Amino acid sequence: RVVPSALEYNAIRGAITKVASAGGTTVRDYQVAFDRYAAIDDITTITGKDLVIEKRSDGHTVISFQYEKRIPLVGPASLVLDYEGTSTGRPQ
After folding, report:
1. What does 53-77 look like in DSSP terms, one character per residue?
2. Which of 62, 57, 58 is nearest to 20 (CA)?
3. Percentage of the chain surpassing pLDDT 90?
4. Coarse DSSP helix, strand, coil percentages of the chain, rounded to the nearest 5 percent
């Protein structure tokens, strides 16, 4: 049950890296571009509106995300995975 979640996380990381490098002029441009990648890669956990898009003073745009995935195990027990990432590949 964890593998599909990890695969989706990797797809999200790849999508935000592509979106950030492709560029855009508005936050909405980045959100729409991410949603296109999400449709292709079957990303359903987050959407473009869940992204944090920051234009840095050096002119680069950094896109980041954070979400929690809860996987039911047995009875009341669940596995909780906290995912986060940035288009730079390192924490902000």
Report:
1. EEE-TTS-EEEEEEEEEEEE-STT-
2. 62
3. 78
4. 40, 25, 30
